[in-house]
Amino acid sequence: MTLPSSIPPMGQREKLLEMSGVDKIFNGNVVALKDMNLTVNQGDFISLLGPSGCGKSTALRLISGLMRPTSGQIAWEGGMKTGDLGVVFQEPTLMPWATVEQNVWLPFRLRGKSMADVQDEIMWALKMVGLEKFQKSYPRELSGGMKMRVSIARSLVTEPRLILMDEPFAALDEITRHKLNNDLLELREKLKCTVIFVTHSVFESVFLSDRIVVMAARPGRVSSEVTVDAPYPRTEEFRTSADYAELCRKASDALHAAMNEHGARASA
Q1: Model-level pTM?
Q2: Domain 13-84+160-267: homologous superfamily in CATH
Q3: DSSP strand pairing (162-166 vs 15-26)
Q4: Whole-angstrom distance, CA of residue 191 vs CA of residue 19
Q5: pLDDT digits 0-9 by tens, 6-28
């Protein structure tokens, strides 16, 4: 696998995609997103942070092409090509009758490639998430954290330019969640990939991200952005540092401001 040598500093990254004036209306009158504007640069780790119903998951579905905006534009630099995108959902969504390697093979299978032809890619992806010894196992034989690792391996096996993650660790216990947060950052360091990560957790967003996009609800839109300038790699030492606590306070204040913004609009 050919990987980039490094992730440039934030101010020097090239644009990957842009959402411009995006609206999404359901059933003719439910406004999920209104005038959503977001620039994503190569190498960014962006968390979309906000309360339930603010359109975080809708924004991911629009970027993935699973749905189309009612108005506005989502433009990829150089156009979006097959294999450019990997998606990790809140649930692992594994096929229970298929082995780990067969689940990871799925993106290639949908493109008409045999498992034998892409065995090296499958094993590379499993090695990236530490599951190379479980290729013949079935989902029922795996823990919740291991199932999520399979889902992550499936998302990165095509070497996508962008990985979308929709609250992938929300259903896991705190210890497993912290471990997978650490593993995700190690993976990002190896792959130099771009990630958009949906979360409700201020603490998770600060630990993972270099950009936190805080969203307000009804209609969903970007309220503010918090830059996390702490260097990578990040460790448990960062989690217990004064800098981390201050960044969490800053992100929490921005989230409360976004929620108050919604309340002010609702009462107007």
Answers
A1: 0.93
A2: P-loop containing nucleotide triphosphate hydrolases (3.40.50.300)
A3: unpaired
A4: 24
A5: 788 888 899 999 999 999 999 87
